[in-house]
Design goal:
The chain is α/β, with parallel strands linked by helices and 417 residues long. The chain has 2 domains: 150 residues, Beta Barrel (Lyase, Ornithine Decarboxylase, Chain A, domain 1); 239 residues, TIM Barrel (Alpha-Beta Barrel). It is built from 13 helices and 20 strands. Helix 2 packs parallel to helix 3, helix 6 runs parallel beside helix 7 and helix 8 packs parallel to helix 9. The chain starts with a strand and ends with a helix.
């Protein structure tokens, strides 16, 4: 979203206020041009014979976004059988979908097998069960590299006490299970966390994965996960994708030379691909001044955008209705009966009741984490694609809230007695 001639625009021509006028507030808006830009940036940064980007769709699962990424050549990283099914409906081939669950039932793994997708296993017990029942079905093994990395403890998943992955110190046991059950291991996977800034963290993990890979014959790919940090505010620090690409490419090519085969290098970015494409727009219900604070209360809350409360994450907030007004200090809060604070003491152009505020970096882990808390409806979603705004998810109604509720026929009569 760019400020041009006194107003904000998406993709150089679409007015976000017009979208709010047509579809109401709050509303999520995604710009496909930014998704394409991010995909190309990562693709251009890696220089190896075989490279595959697998979009981590838990970030944003709208089927239209999945189709855009499929068209760009992306594969899909999934963590649930429902995400697998969405990927198949979006047109991804089973061979291009990697299913990486954690603590799921064996029945869900069996369903993944029935779909023919790639299965990534992160538990020795499950590896034994899987290998016993499906000895001919190739698997990937998720390694825990014991690296504490990520923006905070909630998004660090590669440390020693994490529930994710098999400790790389347990590889001798993994090899015994693989040999005993004649399991075909086609790939190794590693993911240390999210919002990782330091390229050296990736390279440290890569060395562990390379060393582990030398213990297995017949591998066809190595999946290095993701976790690239994106900028959340002006002049923010982010992962240097070009530096990472140059370093990892050099090391991967050297590894393949030593291994004796040209494997496929995989990354599974989610936030990197879609975070900056998204904007969340909400209307200001009230401007309330206390002894020490000026609150701007909007028609949304943690039910629609929980990241600031859950992760203490930062989203830049701009007043789309008054882009060039005088700046004042506001604390932006929601309408939920909880402390749902989006930003404290933020410098924003002067806000009036009825103004539209836009939250940036709302493309990843925002709408997918929305809920009906306080019995509020989840918002509409709009895709800006090639200069046109398309409604891709309608706003919920009372019918949606009641859809799966079942009224007990005899209850009303018994309560009346």
């Amino acid at each position: 979203m760019i400020l041009k001639d006194g107003r904000y625009e998406l993709s150089g021509q679409v007015d976000p206020l017009a979208i709010c006028e047509e579809h109401g507030c709050p509303v999520y808006i995604y710009d496909s041009a930014i998704i394409k830009r991010q995909y190309k940036r990562l693709a251009d940064a890696i220089s190896v014979p075989h490279f595959q980007i697998n979009y981590a769709c838990k970030a944003l699962t709208n089927i239209n976004v999945l189709r855009i990424l499929n068209n760009l050549g992306s594969g899909l990283d999934t963590v649930s059988i429902q995400e697998v099914e969405l990927g198949l409906k979006a047109g991804f081939l089973p061979k291009d979908i990697v299913y990486t669950p954690n603590c799921v039932s064996f029945e869900e793994l069996e369903k993944a097998v029935s779909y023919g997708v790639r299965v990534n296993i992160d538990n020795i017990s499950i590896l034994e069960q899987f290998g016993d029942k499906y000895p001919d079905y190739p698997v990937c093994i998720r390694i825990n590299p014991h690296i504490y990395a990520g923006g905070n403890s909630k998004i660090s998943v590669g440390h020693i006490d994490s529930k994710f992955g098999i400790s790389f110190h347990q590889i001798p046991l993994v090899k015994r299970v693989v040999k005993s059950l004649d399991i075909k291991v086609e790939g190794l996977h590693m993911h240390t966390g999210s919002d990782i800034l330091d390229v050296e963290v990736f390279l440290q993990g890569a060395d562990i994965l390379f060393n582990t890979a030398m213990e297995f014959e017949g591998l066809t790919y190595l999946d290095f996960g993701s976790g690239f940090k994106v900028p959340y505010k002006l002049n923010d620090i982010s992962t240097d994708i070009e530096e990472l690409g140059a370093n990892i490419s050099k090391r991967f090519n050297k590894f393949c030379e030593n291994y004796g085969s040209d494997l496929t290098l995989m990354f599974e970015p989610g936030k990197f691909l879609v975070s900056e494409s998204g904007y969340f727009l909400a209307k200001v219900n009230v401007v309330k001044q206390t002894l020490s604070t000026v609150f701007a209360g909007i028609d949304s809350g943690l039910n629609h955008l929980i990241r600031p409360m859950f992760y203490a994450s930062h989203h830049e907030i701009v007043n789309v209705s008054n882009p060039e007004g005088k700046s004042r200090i506001y604390t932006v809060v929601g309408y939920i009966c909880e402390t749902d604070t989006f930003g404290v003491n933020r410098k924003i152009t002067e806000i009036k009741e009825g103004d539209i505020l836009a939250f940036k970096n709302a493309g990843a882990y925002c709408s997918t984490m929305a809920s009906n808390y306080n019995s509020r409806y989840r918002p509409a979603e709009v895709l800006v694609h090639e200069g046109q705004a398309h409604l891709i998810k309608r706003r919920e109604t009372m019918e949606d809230l009641l859809r799966n509720q079942i009224e007990v026929p005899t209850l009303e009569k018994s309560l009346a007695q």
